[in-house]
Specification:
The chain starts with 6 loop residues before the first helix and ends in a 5-residue tail after the last helix. Helix 2 packs antiparallel against helix 3. It is α+β, with helices and mostly antiparallel strands. The chain has 4 domains: 203 residues, Beta-Lactamase, CATH 3.30.450.40; 166 residues, GAF domain (Beta-Lactamase); 132 residues, no CATH class; 112 residues, Efflux pump adaptor protein, beta barrel domain (Elongation Factor Tu (Ef-tu), domain 3, Beta Barrel). The chain is built from 18 helices and 26 strands. A hairpin with a 2-residue loop joins strand 23 and strand 24. The strands form 6 sheets. A 6-stranded antiparallel barrel has the order 13-22-25-24-23-26.
Length: 703
């Protein structure tokens, strides 16, 4: 049916009643003798037309896309009318015409000739404005192009597409000229009926679209209500990703928020928490940062065309990790200020990005981009409000005050005043009432007179004749050491001394030989002189080595007591180095003292107390062996050098004199916990002075 046949001269669709909405031939239409036409051909033609009309009717009831419908509809109408071609035109919102689909559109008249286009366009607009179907003969209308007309050599059959009394388009058929008036009216009637079916399709499609829009608006209303419900940025981000996933109808939605100069993924749909150290999360954060810096959305469906180079590399890095088929990254910008001056001065910077992903398909469904834009707009507004709310000064404090407003209500006001009064009195007491200000310190109790016994030379301890707590007197042997190297040197010197003595005696006897000449005697005298000097040198070296050998015997330098525990087990047969302390001797009958390690950070209070007072501070202490008893002492010396001592860190050594008679049985190195008295200060300062000093050092110093 693609070419003209007997239908032009022998078939009149509108001349006889329709059978199943299909026009039937009329032998009297054009005065043609039907006996000359094969009845079988006529019946086949009727069947073909009925089939096409049935297909058009079913097509109008199908749920398909508009472009696909226009293609199938126009192709069947053109085939049923055995016409040259056709076109479907629709009205845009601005009033201009849009060609939705065409079959064999006459290019020479309607495409290549601008004047013909204008005449033809005015014709179509007149038909849409009137809403009435019409037949336009070939080459009709004014030739100057100012009026509507048909610039083609075809008969134009025009019928409108209407929805609820509104003309939204027109179907145009390019029919061959030459048919009679009745035949042409049949063409028009057939096209009008087909356009009514098409109008039903368009109406149903609009109803479905309105229904979908209604559902979309209901879902959008719920999304907006949920997104703007809270003012916590993290909670808002999680609400957005979980609610918008159903609204957008995608596999995954993520939100990245600005942290400094880059965006960081804050929430992912379906996940309660995210691991920001994961490679996939880091790559997604990097991609969002790059897209936000470019200030334009990214829609990726598998094609690298038109991708900026700075976006391509992080995009492919993330796709390799996530295997997503479709990725949309839409930067989120805060709403523009209402004041035009503020709008011009304020540079828009993305506060975050909305990331939409499809894992199974790269196709973007109809309306997805629109839904994503709507979600992005409301998400940006909700997140902006949340971020600005969180950035308010002392917001946690104001929030707590707002939640606690019940305390000033009429029923609770007396209780509130009473509690506030108690708190005020307590605070004033902390600031005004004085108390003793003591500095805590740890130390040891030990005799004031003590000596450390150390090794004078390297060696090995071979004998320790003393024991722990043994009383010794000045000069008593405490330990004996051996030094093999020293003994070898002494033995070598003794051997050299003997050899030198033998040579001296031999030369002395040889001098009395009367056969020697004067020169020989002089030579021998020189050798004797040299040997005598060598013997004296050896003797001096041997004296020094023997002196060192005597220092291998360690003796007590004072009368006292050995206080080193298990001194024999610790030192016997052990190699020691020069200067190493081997044991300690103390005088238990003399005065005792405390050695306190005062932390360096507390020395300022102690120095101020010394400056204000006339004497050094008093110390109250307790012994680890007698925890229930307190004793007193007096600071006698403060070292001027701070050193690291044990776990206390940098400390200053204080020496404290104690009354030996007031102490119980004394043991050297007894652990002591002491309080150094530094006058009287307010209770609040005494309790919180370390906190105050920490704030002054760690916070106020850096402001």
């Amino acid at each position: 049916m693609s070419t003209a046949g007997p239908l032009d001269s022998q078939f009149s669709p509108g001349s006889v009643p329709l059978v199943g909405s299909v026009p039937t031939p009329d032998p009297a239409t054009n005065g043609v003798d039907m006996g000359t036409i094969d009845p079988v051909l006529i019946q086949q033609t009727k069947n073909e037309i009925r089939t096409l009309v049935t297909e058009i009717t079913r097509l109008c009831q199908a749920d398909i896309g508009l472009a696909e419908f226009y293609e199938e509809f126009l192709r069947r109408v053109v085939s049923a009318l055995a016409s040259h071609g056709g076109a479907v035109w629709s009205m845009r919102d601005d009033g201009s015409l849009q060609l939705d689909y065409q079959v064999n559109l006459p290019k020479s008249e309607l495409v290549d000739d601008e004047a013909s286009q204008l005449r033809h366009g005015r014709l179509l607009q007149n038909v849409i404005a009137s809403g009435q179907p019409t037949l336009v003969p070939p080459q009709s209308g004014s030739a100057d192009g100012e009026e509507a007309g048909n610039p083609t050599d075809f008969l134009l059959v025009l019928a409108c597409l209407r929805i609820d009394q509104e003309t939204i388009g027109v179907v145009e058929i390019f029919q061959r000229a030459g048919g009679g008036p009745t035949t042409q009216r049949g063409y028009l009637r057939f096209l009008v009926q087909m356009c009514e079916h098409a109008s039903d399709f368009l109406k149903n499609r609009r109803l479905r679209h309105l229904g979908d829009r209604q559902s979309l608006w209901e879902e959008l209303e719920g999304f907006i209500r949920s997104a703007h419900q809270g003012l916590d940025s993290k909670a808002t981000a999680y609400t957005i990703v979980n609610e918008s996933r159903r609204l957008i109808q995608c596999d995954r939605v993520s939100i990245a928020l600005r942290k400094g100069n880059r965006l960081t993924v804050e929430a992912v749909s379906g996940l309660d928490t995210i691991d920001r150290r994961a490679a996939e999360v880091q790559q997604l954060s990097r991609l969002a940062s790059v897209v936000a810096a470019a200030n334009r959305p990214l829609w990726y469906t598998g094609s690298n065309r038109d991708l900026p180079p700075q976006v391509e590399e992080p995009l492919h890095a993330y796709v390799d990790q996530s295997h997503a088929k479709m990725i949309a990254v839409v930067p989120l910008y805060p709403p523009e200020p209402e004041d035009e001056n503020d709008r011009n001065e304020r540079k828009q910077q993305a506060i975050g990005a909305l990331i939409v992903e499809e894992l199974a398909s790269s196709r973007i469904d109809d309306g997805m981009s629109e839904r994503v834009e709507i979600v992005a707009t409301h998400s940006a507004c909700a997140l902006t409000n949340a971020i600005e709310h969180e950035s308010l000064f002392l917001m946690p404090v104001w929030r707590a005050i707002g939640k606690a407003k019940w305390i000033v209500q009429a029923r609770t006001l007396p209780k509130t005043i009473a509690i506030a009064t108690v708190i005020l009195v307590f605070v004033l007491g902390l600031a005004i009432v004085p108390t003793d200000f003591d500095l805590a310190s740890n130390g040891k109790l030990q005799p004031a007179v003590r000596r450390e016994v150390f090794a004078h030379l390297d060696g090995v301890v071979i004998d320790v004749p003393v024991e722990h707590e043994q009383m010794v007197r000045t000069g008593d042997v405490l330990a004996r050491m051996s030094n093999n190297k020293l003994e070898v040197e002494i033995a070598n010197l003794i051997g050299r001394k003997r050899t030198t003595g033998e040579r001296i005696r031999s030369l002395t006897r040889a001098q009395y030989d009367q056969h020697l000449t004067g020169g020989q005697q002089n030579e021998m005298a020189g050798q004797l002189l040299e040997l005598d000097q060598s013997a004296e040198s050896i003797e001096r070296e041997l004296a020094l080595l023997r002196e060192q050998q005597e220092r291998l015997v360690l003796r007590s330098a004072m009368d006292g007591q050995v206080v080193t525990w298990s001194v024999g087990d610790v030192l016997l047969r052990r190699p020691v180095q020069r200067g190493q302390i081997l044991m300690t001797i103390v005088d238990p009958n003399d005065d005792w003292e405390l050695e306190l390690n005062m932390p360096e950070r507390r020395m300022g209070h102690l120095e101020r107390q010394i400056e204000d007072g006339e004497k050094l501070p008093t110390v109250t202490f307790t012994l680890a062996s007698h925890p229930g008893s307190e004793f007193e002492g007096q600071v006698t010396e403060i070292h001027r050098v701070a050193e690291v001592r044990g776990e206390d860190g940098n400390t200053v050594l204080l020496r404290v004199a104690v009354d030996r008679a007031a102490l119980p049985e004394l043991r050297s190195e007894t652990t002591v916990t002491a309080r150094v008295q530094c006058g009287r200060r307010s209770i609040g300062f005494v309790v919180f002075h370390e906190l105050i000093e920490t704030i002054q050092t760690k916070v106020l110093f850096w402001l």
